Amino acid sequence: MNALDRFIALFAPHSALRRAQARHALRAYEATSPSRLRTIKRARFSADSDVRTAGLSLREAARWLEQNYDLVDGALDVLVRAVVGTGIIPEPLVRLRDGSLATNVNEQLTEWYATWAEAPEVTGEMDAGAVQRIKARTLFRDGEVFTQHLPGEIRTLRHLTDVPYSIELIDPEAVPIGYSDPRKRIIQGVQKNGWGRPLTYFVARIDPATGQMITEYVPVPAARMDHLKIIKRLRQTRGVTVLASAIERLEDVRDYDETERVAAKIAASMAAFIKRGTPDLYNPETTQVDEQGNRVPREHKFQAGMIFDFLESGEDIGTIDTNRPNPNLGRYRDDQLRAGSAGIGLAFSSFARNYEGNYSSRRQEANEQAPHYHILWDYFCSRSERPIWRTLVDVLLANRMLELPRDIDLSTLYAVDYSRPATPAIDRQKEVGADANALETFQDSLVDVWRRNGRNPADMWRKLADQAVKLEAISGANPSAHTSITPDPTDDAEPLADGDDESEREEAA
To answer: Which residues form a coiled coil (predicted)?
Structure first.
């Protein structure tokens, strides 16, 4: 309160109070003041409280949409294809002390990973690429996915490859959201320390006979568990589906699509009705009834050129005109899907399967969407693939399955890079030209270009070396002296006369 307000308060306290209230109102945001025409909704609870209340319902709604709405199923396919593709392949980058790549060690690691990738999962039903895709799909649809590491010899488990290491994919429902114990710092199935770091995950047992989960929880140390989750707030224990903010809109669009389809089917069926005349024209004796005295409905099959000669007195034929299909359906649907794609994190053209527009507009959409896909890919690699790689290297070292040179740099033993799904080219000629220009001006490297196009640099170097050897062998070979020259059928030269000598014939040839 300034000096003027204190002076006014001495003689007119009510006026001073109104001045203070007015000054406070000017400092506040207008959007925080509800009115008759504006109702402000607020999220007052913590992230864990919101997930505990709505997390299970969101997950079930997302699964239902995936099962019953083709666009949502396709949207999840697009996310999986953009983040994982055919599979994220590691490229080991172990180096020697002089800084050069340890080629022998990197080749060993690559071969062992290829062996392990044939059956890395405990059920043996999926290879590494399929495991990555189902993990990514579960992450996007359910909001989270769990992976348990099982290295070394385990009494009840037989590893399916020569590498004694397997992983187990755990459904989010197996770690119950409703299991909490504040005294033990257990929040939604996860026990944490005072800093909020996960210590133990409680996983429900599964009945092998029925496949149903039993309410008997097995504690799994956090060191053996990877928890991928999509979170929006700090200290959020469990994840939520990427469809969370768009579920209502997607359900409305699906209902609208179904309604329009039914209306179009009715219009295509050419339904008709009989309009009756005045009551005095109605003759009950001509009405057909069944044995129970119920009226038998009159049904007539429409045929080309049919004549309506079955009408009674005062009756007329009317047809149902629904003006279907609705010409505005596509535009309205695209507008709704454009808004929904923003919440899901998808490109609208990929979501709606609408690829209209020129090269510049489509390229701009791809440029804006690429960073989001890259963020998801980076998170998936750092929280899923890197822990798997480190465990795999540890298992190989513990079982003496790697031959390490004496001058190896041990600090780079876990160094690895990962391939990315190739970005589809909109105009191949333009984009290849841009890559070539970037290479010529030293703005990019061959390795970066290869990775951007979904190629493994190690494989590319090997292929280029093989190609160089083959080209050198071909260039050193002598062409056959008996190679015939095929005459050009378009050659309109006149034939030589019989009196021409041999030299003129050779010159003409």
So the answer is: none
